[in-house]
From TrEMBL:
<feature type="region of interest" description="Disordered">
    <location>
        <begin position="101"/>
        <end position="120"/>
    </location>
</feature>
<feature type="compositionally biased region" description="Low complexity">
    <location>
        <begin position="104"/>
        <end position="118"/>
    </location>
</feature>
<feature type="signal peptide">
    <location>
        <begin position="1"/>
        <end position="20"/>
    </location>
</feature>
<protein>
    <recommendedName>
        <fullName>Lipoprotein</fullName>
    </recommendedName>
</protein>
<keyword id="KW-0732">Signal</keyword>
Length: 184
């Protein structure tokens, strides 16, 4: 009988200790895991803001590549930083170098954003992999480009575009490999 009472007392102490450690409260202010409703709401709002910002970044990258394929210099140069060229220099250079617009190309973002460090005249930013798919006579052809995105005055802009060749694609992080490659 004494042994049963001692076991029951030990179990009671263990249960009370477990409740104290896990933060069990009857106040109703905590959600499972010991996080308050206010903390959960703040975390949800931050996650929603990050998702919205990421969607805006991807939209700019897609519009940039589609404008490039369509030969739309105004849009293309408007979505680019002035790292190498001013907007007017970009328009002049692009208009002179572009041949006919490419048709029948679908562009998609592949994977998620990747942090990329600064290199040469490019500041730290976020890298994205964009895939261009062209179907000719039933055969699909793919071209992948890594794009460095930077935020300038609250707006996402394209700062660098690099071909993601076989060497970059074979690396652990193809986007970073393509964008951090030394200039040829």
């Amino acid at each position: 009988m004494r042994r049963t009472a001692a076991v029951a007392a030990a179990l009671t102490v263990s249960a009370v200790s477990a409740l104290a450690v896990t933060g069990c409260s009857s106040s109703g202010k905590s959600t499972p895991g010991g996080v308050t409703k206010e903390e959960r709401a703040r975390a949800d709002a931050e996650a929603a803001a990050r998702a919205k910002d990421e969607a805006a970044m991807k939209d700019v990258a897609l519009r940039y590549v589609k404008a490039d394929l369509a030969g739309d210099a105004e849009t293309r140069c408007g979505l680019r930083t002035e790292t190498k060229l001013t907007r007017s220099e970009c328009l002049e250079t692009y208009r002179d170098s572009r041949s006919k617009p490419e048709e029948g190309v679908t562009v998609t973002v592949e994977g998620g954003p990747v942090d990329v460090g600064p290199i040469r005249n490019h500041s730290a930013g976020t890298g994205l992999m964009l895939t261009q798919k062209t179907v000719v006579d039933g055969h699909a052809y793919y071209r992948r480009e890594a794009i460095r995105m930077v935020k300038v005055e609250g707006k996402w802009l394209v700062d660098q575009v690099a071909l993601a060749d076989d060497e970059a694609m074979a690396s652990a992080v193809p986007v970073r490999s393509a964008l951090m490659r030394p200039a040829a």
